[in-house]
Design brief:
Structural class: alpha+beta
Largest sheet: 7 strands, mixed
Number of domains: 4
Number of helices: 17
CATH architecture of the largest domain: Alpha-Beta Complex
Helix content: 40-55%
Shape: globular
Distance between the termini: 71 Å
CATH superfamily of the largest domain: 2-enoyl-CoA Hydratase, Chain A, domain 1
CATH class of the largest domain: Alpha Beta
Strand order of the largest sheet: 10-11-12-15-16-21-22
Length: 549
Amino acid sequence: MKKYGLKIFLPIVIVTAILSLAITQSSYYRKIGKSQQLINRVYNQIFSTYVHQIDPETFTKDAINGITQKLDPFTEYMVDDEQHNINVLSKGKYGGVGIQLSYRNNTMSVVAPMDGGPAKSAGIISGDIILKVDDIDVKKFSFNEAAAKIRGEKGTKVKLTVKRFGDSDPIEFNLTRSEIIVKTVTYAGMLTESTGYIRLNRFNKNSPIELQKSISSLLNDKATSLIFDLRDNAGGLLTAAVSMLDMMIDKNTTLVSTKGRTKDSNRTFYSRRDPIIPKDIKIAILINQGSASASEIVAGSIQDLDRGIIIGQKSFGKGLVQTQYSFDDKRSIKITTARYYIPSGRFIQKRDYIDEKYIMNASDEDSIFTTIGGRIVYGNGGIAPDSTVVPDSLKSLSSQYWRNGHFYTFSQENKHNYKTFKSVENDKNLLKKFEKYIDTKDKIFLPGEKDLNLAKVKISKLDSTDSEVNKALDLLSDFYDREEKKRRKSEESEIKELLLLEFAGLFNGTEGRLIQALKNDETVQTAIDILSNNSAYFSSLSSSGIIEN
């Protein structure tokens, strides 16, 4: 009887569960339908009765943005040129003239023309200031709008009017747009006899091929250690991150999994081939607060699998996957459709990405996990490095000079005085020239100096004849003058370093600027030191080994 009863009871339970689920789902979709009807009624009422005739396209765009802004920061509605970055990631190319642009102090300038692009072939150089696009002043546009005007279909024409220091008259360039391949490996080279370095600035369609070529080249150069710099790499394609891991991790190892509400959102990615990086090659991944998404998948998986060490600062904390849905050629929506989990099971997204009042099935995530070797690692908020390095912040004067664009402008205005970057490095009077330049600019105020000047004005209104007070105020002013001179002297090495950084970019492009920056990079030096010391490297991968610098 007991067996017979069990046979009857189980189907009843199953049928009841299925029926309950169906009713729940049906109720949910009825709520959606009612909500849609309400939105349509409100929409129709506004357009038919509002006192002004409203532009439907603009209003609709803002209405959709109002909806998406209530979700996570990565779900967004995109129109026209807002899709450019997505297209660059998915295709690895775009139509344009091949220039890297900068926007400072309301000025658009050329950071570097790309090799083989129309701009470089026509003679546009680093430091050129763009005044007009197709005879329209760029100041009439935002930076993104102006950049979009320069881009366009392959084979179409665009005219750029530029101002070049040393030339009194503007220069016009009539360019034919071409297909621009976006490089993601901005530099690859040997830092020491045994340490190779690769800087990756994003994960797009081209990244795996570029990485494979760079890795093979460094291994041919007898590298026994590799540094992968993912600092300020905001991510990109998940598949590109998986391909990168595929080059480092043993075949058939779980790399990352995604979980969402649809069948397509639930996937597990494995390494599909034998790695091209041998097991005896030591690996370091550099991250900082600007490392996000695909960068965190790489760093987190390497950490979870104990394949290498992570150096730098805690990463951004983006554990969400987006899918793009196109409505037509110009409009699409990018929606967060899944969470990703790295090999230990960690979900590394920051917890407050959405107001939980909108969520019907909110659930907690574990926060403590272990690597394959038993090290404790944490979820819910980015990847914590194995070795923490916090670079020194800029000193007071250097920081203000930087924010005001003085290093950048000085280098632009003086580039024509030098033939090569080497001649800048050898200029013993570089700092004196910069000091004279600074003296022609608005005064840089030290902490409390503005308050002193304001006090002077107020005291003068009360009594401008008190000699003792005036003497005291003069003494304070003299103190600030001395302090500024003292700080200029103490910050000379940092000021020179920042000047050389700007000149390196102007003469040698993005790669040249990066090479110059690496000379004084604390995080890179820490990586070199750990990789060159077997004891330090392998202890950091043990369950007790966390290094603080």
